[in-house]
Amino acid sequence: MRTPIISKKSRIFLLTTGLTILAVCSFFVLRSNGPEPKKGISLFNYFSVNSVEAITLRLDLDAVYDKDSADFPGILNWVEKDGRQISMPVEISVRGKNRREVCTFPPLKLSTFENKELGAKKGHFKLVTHCTEDKGETLLLREYLTYLLYAELTDASFRTRLIHVTYEDRDGGEETVQSIAILLEPKKDLLKRLKAEDAVVDGPVKAISGEDYNRFAVFQFMIGNTDWNLDNQHNVRLLTPKEGGLPYPVPYDFDRSGLVNAPYASPHSMLPIETVRDRFFQWRGKDRKQLEPVLELFKQRKDRLMQLCQEFYMLPMEDRQDIISFLEEFYGNIDMLLTEGKRMAHSSEKVTVGAG
């Protein structure tokens, strides 16, 4: 029998949620008196519209700990604002190639079925879990904040939602686990919201939207993240506007960034940096003058980005100060991106960075 992963922060989460919402309401998608859900709404949007803040997932915890790749059934429960208890079946699978190797409690994918009573459609959503017992929740909150920072810069970003989860073992052999998790916006919701479709990419990316690519690459440099690749769409979705235009990137999975600073994170051995707290600019454009507009955007948004970090009260002050210092270092050297340097990417194969 495993020791339950229940931190002090978990136990006080529900008590502090109200204060946190007031403090960071500008970036939480929580509405106490939101509109009635539309028919065919995803469960992610249903939770957002109806301010569902806590769920219980009854599942096979042995399959989670063993990181079983096969799907297994579970039951998802929550309580509505009017006191109604909702219960619905789900299919669960362990996901995350890298995190599966390092996490005691790996991330999950939940497949839901159509629920006519709720008006919820069949779909899938990702649940980013606390991963490890030691500082797992703190690292999760740092990653959640990273999503918020990118969403402040562009709508071409995954929406996220924090939720308190109780994991109950269906057979009773494992101890109940309580923790916070990140709900990640389903891809179908992302495509519908952005009026886009998956880009058709066969081989290396040859052309990409300049404004979106430059913002994406500078952001990855800002947070100290090199764990992504355009060509194989590793930790990035390439989308194309339905009305036409060049593809653009939407990033996800920031746990190996310097801003999150997970103990298991390290840069690729081929990169000329030693830790994820170092920065390396993975940019494949031709003319660095193209970066000037996006660097100006980052400068204009600096105060807002810093405010998000300072007022994210779910993180301890020590972590917020560390993140702010890390970002200040970026801003202190932001103009170096306009010139070649030892921490700049050099590639024999350039990408055509278009205007649209």
Detailed description of the structure:
It is a single chain. This protein has a seven-stranded mixed beta barrel with strand order 1-2-3-4-5-7-6. The N and C termini lie far apart (56 Å). The protein contains eleven helices and twelve strands. It is 30% helix and 20% strand. β10 and β11 form a beta hairpin. α6 (136-153) packs antiparallel against α10 (302-310) and α10 runs antiparallel to α11. It has 356 residues and is α+β, with helices and mostly antiparallel strands. The chain folds into two domains: 8-192, no CATH class; 195-354, Phosphatidylinositol 3-kinase Catalytic Subunit, Chain A, Domain 5 (Orthogonal Bundle), CATH 1.10.1070. It has helices spanning 8-11, 13-23, 43-49, 61-65, 97-102, 136-153, 187-194, 210-222, 292-300, 302-310, 317-332, and strands spanning 54-59, 72-79, 85-94, 108-112, 123-128, 160-169, 177-184, 196-198, 207-209, 236-241, 248-251, 352-354.
Distance from N terminus to C terminus (CA atoms, Å) equals 56 Å
The overall pLDDT, averaged over residues, is 86
- Counted by DSSP, the helix tally is 11
Assembly level: single chain
What percentage of amino acids are in beta strands?
15-25%
Indicate the radius of gyration in whole angstroms. 21 Å
Major β-sheet strand ordering: 1-2-3-4-5-7-6
Please provide the ordered H/E string of secondary-structure elements: HHHEHEEHEEHEEHEEHEEHHHE
> How many discrete structural domains?
2
Protein structure class: alpha+beta
Shape: globular
Question: Tally of extended strands?
Answer: 12
